[in-house]
Design goal:
By secondary structure, the protein is an alpha/beta fold. The chain contains 15 helices and 12 strands.
Amino acid sequence: MNEPAPALPVLERPWRSGQIGRALTICFPFSGDELGGSHMSVRGLLEQLDPERYRVLVVPEKPGGDISEFFARWRQIADPAPPRRSLVPGAPIGPVKALGALAGIPARRRFLKEQGVDIVHTNDGRSHAGWALASRLAGARLVWHHRGDPSARGLRFVAPLLADRILTVSRFSLPAQGSRAAQRAQVVHSPFDTSVTANRETMRARILERIAGPADALLCGYFGNFIERKRPFGFLDSIEALAGLVDRPVRGLLFGDPRNSEYGERLPRRVEGVRGNARAHMMGFCSPGHAWLAGCDVLLVPAAREPLGRTLVEAMLVGTPVVATRSGGNPEALEGDCGILCELDDSRAMARAVARLLADPDRCEAMCARARRTARARFSMGNHADRVSAVYSALAPGGSAAD
């Protein structure tokens, strides 16, 4: 078991009114203790930020947990008002849950003022709910990083009142045109290490050894939380359908933290019940994700209204072909013929697309090469950090942001 992170001293406030050019303290609060794509994106940002310009403070809900360990390189202080029960990642935050999050506002407000925090950068719905109002009351600027659906209530009703800037991961995620939120919003694609490489043959062999699979198995990957929006049951339906279309055993690999599930025992039972010449395996959370993606023959993305999936871009970078739904930010990520798009909730269409693609190796190879070039050009960590830094500068004293 990890030991709790020791308490750290109060930071000296980096600037006061009229003190321009001093380092800004940026606070990154995190709810729960389950790692996901937003944490990967934030770490990519932190690795690029200039320490002479920014003092980073990570605030995990659980000291010594997975998130705390993931950000171990950066200064940390535990959440001063952790909830008795964490909100479920990806689940809607209704009025009752929102009211529960308000209980910690006074302690978090005091914390932000004591630590001299200048900008709070929240990165998911749970952190927005717990820290947005506290940021406003503490006099800190708030960067609301929206990685979800544009219809989210928080984005429509809360962010326009409390956020100084709204960042979205795709055009799909932008608030409705003409809304108050849209006036403060801009697209900043998530950061990726575009130099990553992986030995596909080595990783394929590693997966086959782990699942005791046959050498000729067709390895289909699913990466993400087990929530309805991501459609893990649709993935299982697709691999069953695919097994009837190809002359190879099909293996469905579900990568993700089993704690991030809305299904309880329903999903493991469905995994065990996969029929025909297909089998499915719960692989757990495996890192680095791009390496495990490289071991898959194809990535299936059956998700509905996915803003911009990290694993989709990582698959592009390591040469794994992508078959995804024509929904959310998937078409934006794959534009330029960098993947195959299918209609939402049509598992047979997804299976047919995989079968056709793998039956045409020349087309598949050309598509993967095109996808790699596109991903390297569009999703670098440097580009992301430059754009976020510009937002921080605009929010600093003397910047161009409106009060």
